[in-house]
UniProtKB/TrEMBL annotation:
The chain crosses the membrane at residues 31-58, 97-115, 136-158, 170-191. This is Molybdopterin-dependent oxidoreductase. Keywords: Membrane, Transmembrane, Transmembrane helix. The keyword Calcium does not apply. It holds the Pfam family Oxidored_molyb. One of its GO terms (biological process) is respiratory electron transport chain. One of its GO terms (cellular component) is membrane. InterPro entries: Di-haem_cyt_TM, OxRdtase_Mopterin-bd_dom, OxRdtase_Mopterin-bd_sf. Residues 204-224 are annotated as: Disordered. Gene3D superfamilies: Oxidoreductase, molybdopterin-binding domain. Residues 204-214 have a biased composition (Basic and acidic residues). The keyword Transmembrane applies.
Length: 430
């Protein structure tokens, strides 16, 4: 109580974590923090940049595709998303999600190592220190926000009181700006700290010989350290083992074959449907309000162009069909490669009188959720591998995979490969 009264009277520090003696771990120090920081300095920019690339893959400049219309200058880097190589989105989004998950234990360890800094008192003593503190708050807050919302999103656990897409984009730019400022301020100290002791020597130091680091200007080293219960070698092994475990339990969702069953952290389970349709399902027909009756004999595909054309599924099957082995990858990180058979989108455009389509808007029977209609670019329509798919792996599509027909475009995000297509509008607005 004496400490509280002293603080309330305007003297001293607040009680608890604001006092240096509260933090007693003998492991904290510039070297340990810098080891975690170096790993994150390599990994986090990759996660951020692949996330920004994912936004570009949605072709937000096309009608109806932009989930963040108020982005303003934040979309300065956007470019026309290509159809080749066909594995590009599978690689970038898989890297974004899997690497992000793998870095979670390291991020938590880094936050643990610097937590005394978050309670420094007074908060700043100079303008330079104020800038450092602001960058630290934005860096930590941005990282926590991006990781928490991202993990909830890939698990399809939508509990946000805001729209995920713009919030995640804005959060990414806030985080990147804070990271640049923080690295500019801290890089010299990181290099000095890493050179202060050899990594191999530290990995050979057991619990008995573990000692606190020398006092440092950032006050990361405990003022009154307690006895160690773990060596730095043990802590690094624990954190690294946690990251490798997360990697091992999630990387299988980006691969085909038996390893897919190891993806215990995949959000959609590992049993997806019968026979040739046994691969990932993002949204089931029931979850978006599509019934078997809607997809039954009465279904018609409407083509809109210079003229309107209505086609039954059998009439589509009577058109020239083409088969390609193409990957499909989702924003949640999973991907798979399957063999798709269908009619080329370019052929359907010509059928309704559009010889050189400037793009197409695909509309679905989907009743609930996002992306019940998406726009594809002229380049995507013109690619000879872009199909209105009717079959997969030699069998009819299952209802959950988009029967009676779905879009399949090389290198497009999964949600742009529209399922349960009812209309293709090649009348692109000028």
């Amino acid at each position: 109580m004496a400490g509280v009264r002293e603080w309330l009277s305007g003297r001293g520090r607040p009680p608890g974590p604001f006092r240096p003696e509260f933090w007693r771990s003998p492991l904290r120090g510039p070297w340990l923090t810098s080891v975690f920081g170096l790993v994150l300095l390599v990994g986090l920019p990759i996660v951020a940049l692949t996330g920004l690339v994912s936004y570009a893959a949605y072709n937000p400049g096309l009608p109806g595709n932009d989930m963040t219309p108020s982005k303003g200058l934040l979309g300065f880097y956007l470019f026309d998303w290509p159809t080749s190589p066909v594995w590009l989105y599978r690689l970038t989004q898989g890297t974004h999600v899997i690497l992000g998950l793998t870095l979670v234990p390291i991020l938590l360890a880094k936050l643990w190592s610097v937590i005394p800094k978050l309670f420094a008192w007074p908060p700043f003593r100079s303008p330079a220190q104020l800038l450092e503190r602001v960058s630290l708050v934005l860096l930590v807050g941005g990282a926590v926000f991006e990781f928490v919302t991202g993990i909830l999103n890939i698990q399809l656990f939508y509990v946000f009181p805001f729209s995920f897409y713009p919030a995640h984009l804005y959060g990414a730019w806030v985080f990147l700006a804070a990271l640049v400022v923080h690295v500019a301020l801290k890089l010299p100290r990181l290099v000095t700290a890493l050179r202060s002791r050899g990594f191999r020597r530290e990995m050979r130091t057991g619990l008995r010989d573990t000692r606190p680091e020398p006092p440092d200007p950032d006050d990361l080293v405990a003022a009154a350290p307690g006895p160690p219960s773990m060596s730095r070698r043990g802590l690094l092994a624990f954190v690294g083992g946690g990251s490798l475990t997360v990697l091992g339990l999630s990387v299988g969702q980006t691969m085909d074959g038996p390893i897919r069953s190891t993806a215990l952290l995949a959000p959609h389970g590992r049993d997806y449907g019968p026979g040739p349709n046994d691969f990932q399902v993002n949204k089931t027909a029931a979850s978006v309000g599509v019934t078997a009756a809607q997809a039954g004999p009465g279904w018609r595909l409407t083509l809109l162009g210079a003229r309107q054309v209505l086609l039954t599924r059998q009439e589509l099957l009577d058109l020239p069909l083409h088969t390609y082995r193409l990957p499909i990858a989702c924003v949640e990180g999973w991907s798979t490669e399957q063999e798709w058979t269908g009619v080329r989108l370019a052929d359907l455009a010509r059928l309704c009188g559009v010889a050189e389509p400037g793009g197409v808007q695909a509309r679905s029977m989907q009743q609930a959720g996002f992306f019940n209609q998406v726009s594809l670019s002229a380049g995507q329509v013109a690619d000879h591998r872009s199909l209105l798919a009717l079959r997969v792996n030699g069998a009819d599509l299952s209802l959950d995979h988009g029967f009676p027909a779905r879009i399949m475009v090389p290198n497009a995000p999964g949600v742009h490969n529209t399922k349960w297509v009812r209309e293709l509008d090649f009348r692109v607005p000028s």
